[in-house]
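User: Can you fold this complex?
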Amino acid sequence: MSEPAVVFDHVWKRFSKGRRARTLAELVYRLPRRLLERADAGGLRDGEFWALKDVSFEVEKGEMLGIVGANGAGKSTVLKLLFRILRPERGQVTTRGRVGGLIELGAGFHPYLTGRENVFINGAILGMRMAEIRRKYDSIVEFAGIPEFMDMPVKDYSSGMFARLAFAVAAHAEPDVLLVDEVLAVGDTAFQLKCYDAMARKRKQGTTVLLVSHNMYALAAASRVMYLRSGDSRACGEPKATIAQYLDELERPHEQHPMEVEGGTSERITGVELLDAHGQPVRGLLPGEALHVRFHYALARPVESPIFAMTLLYNDTRYSLRQPTGQYLVHLNSGTAFSGRVFRGVGCVEVTAPAVHAPVGLYRAKSYLFERDGLSPLHVRDGVGELEILRPEWSDQQALVDLRQYWRVAEAVENTKGSVQP
Amino acid sequence: MAQLREIWEHRELAVALGMREVRVRYKHTLLGIGWAVALPLALMVVFTFVFQRVAQVATPGIPYAVYAYIGLVPWQFHASVLNTASRSLVDNRNLVTKVYFPREVLPLSCVLSAAVDFAVAALLLGGLMAWYGVAPGWGLLLVPVVLLVQLAMALGCALWVAAANLLYRDVQYLLQVGVLLWMFGSSVVYPIPATGPLGWLAWVNPMTPILDAYRGLIAGGRFGFDAPFWAAAGISLLVLVTGAAWFRRVEPVFGELA
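Assistant: Here's the predicted assembly.
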């Protein structure tokens, strides 16, 4: 059996929360404290924490290891250690062969230089030889699909063109160990697919792949998945079981406190009530059920033609494989309903949405108050309420849009005599 | 040794980054690479006026303009290396925190890009000497030795200031004053005597013997090196070796500090 391509041997990595002196003046000021201060039993000083705690794993050549975990769990730190950008405090990181990565696209791209010039610099940064880049140049240009722009400075590129060219170069580097941080794949779907496609091709050629991802489908393709939580390796093994454990341990988002986003205290929405069809406070709705919303306002001065609005933001990390959290998925807006009217003092307005068709999951409400033109809000407040769209027993609803729909048996295609009576 | 081999394996990257620097520097300028000549030439004219017409500095055996130009061009190289190298790790933060390569490549690329300007500016020297009727001697053959010593000095300083500035950003500001002081403490635009109250300056500051060696070999009809030059060579080598060692020592934290 050959030696593993990657070995993480009881690796510890310490970070500090920006306490290190960056200027000489700071150093002089901090030195006395630093000398007096003792590290605690765990080897940490004030403000320091372990980003990785005793993490060990091995990856065989040609294997694909997925890494999953919440933000700040230490996933990117693992990649940076492998890339030798960071060094461990304890333990050892060993890699065999050329390590390359899709961690940063377009590293070293200079805005004033042309696409062609940047291909060579970026290629060299990714570890390619000049001769190698020259040989692959045509293929890179073809892959990027922008041959007519190669002599244009990249500052004039659209962001899409920039990403395509950067990715084309990265896809032509041939590392033995490929590190992929999916954070870069926030681009459009076609771009992401291209990324996975390139990864799969490299794997077929025997490249070892380490993939950091939130995309459960991409991770399921790995030979093994490691689950990190606050720097601890919680599990490492068969993808399905590990992903299931990760999803299980994800906590439900905490109770949110309302947060002023914009506006002062004199003209504001003081509260939002989410009610069901019977006027009762509601926390969970089935798709298609009615939602009744009551806005309480307090206006110190007369406000002409006000517009009340509320959005429901997707706030569910359990299903983040479906939609990114923070997306505005439901929007209620009074529009011109109160046009020409003047509101003042304390009161409330109500709106009924007869049927809420939204994807299953947790939502967070955000309220808005506009005056007349609706351009700049008088008051915006986030976290004014929480709502869950429940999963109906009969459905495994996954789509983003749920259409209002009317079903019937179509007589024309109905051949049998005994048609169903509505 | 492993350090050297790794850097050698990344030589193409150093060249690519150096060329990027040169290209970017002269993009969108009318004169382009001509600025490499124009700047020292303009400085030479200014200093010729100041030190010949106003202050009447004596430069035995060499017309002042030639004296100043041979001082200014290598000095510009040195100053430019110090300035760009000090910022090299910080300015390339996105590389230092995202991609691995031996970090020495960044200060090294600064030396390379400055060397391009140096070479271009040196071309004009021939014309200048012909104009003033100064004939080059056999000493010209020994110039590569001086060049090597200066390169060692420049690279050594580049490694020192690049790493130091990453640790403490004060360095780039201190350098602005430091480089100016250093220039006036070296025989760039006027001779620094090796004797007298300030004589020690010529011994501890390698730039003076280096610049004097250029002048002596190219325009002064000298063939061979004096004791201060060998001292300068020793100091340069020391700066390079300690710079490389220190750079390697602090390199592990670069990814966190950049």
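Chain B has a mean pLDDT of 90. DSSP finds twelve helices and no strands in chain B.
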